[in-house]
Amino acid sequence: MNVVLYIGSAIVTLWLIGGIYRQKQGRNKVVYAVKGNCTGCKRCVTNLRKCKYNVLELVCDENGKHIVVKYPDKCTACGDCVSICKFKALELVECNPPK
Predict the structure, then answer these.
(1) Secondary structure of the chain: what % helix, strand, coil (to 5)?
(2) Burial (Cβ within 10 Å: 0-12, 13-18, ≥19) of residue 68
(3) 64 — alpha (psi -120 to 50), left (phi > 0) or beta?
(4) What is the pTM assigned to this prediction?
């Protein structure tokens, strides 16, 4: 019984540490959509690992369907959308520091 408790505690602790590390790592970054690479497949907005903060949106215009970053101020730079995109249409870039 104690072994299960120790293993469960270790898993929760590592999960929390990983979340804090990802948040600190992405503090000065934001996701950027490369429109020329986007095919409109919607994997980044409909997959299980999609953006939890609804930063991305699929739009249709004269150029066809493509992803835009609708709310860059909500982006935590977790990288989930970047890792799910197989067409390299999303990337993390440095934020412009406020002047």
Answers:
(1) 35, 20, 40
(2) middle
(3) left
(4) 0.63
Calpha distance 59→53 (Å, rounded): 17
For 46-85, write each residue's pLDDT tens digit.
876 677 788 888 888 877 888 888 888 888 888 888 888 8
Which residues fall within 8 angstroms of residue 56, CB to CB, at 6 or more apart?
Answer: 31, 33, 44, 45, 50, 67, 68, 69, 70, 81, 90
**Domains plus CATH for the chain?**
2-94 (3.30.70.20)
Which positions ≥6 away from 27 have C-beta within 8 Å? 77
Tell the burial category of 40 from Cβ atoms under 10 Å away from its Cβ (0-12, 13-18, 19+): middle
Report the length, in residues, of the chain.
Answer: 99
Pair of tokens at residue 34: 């490369």
- The residue behind tokens 């699929």 is 58
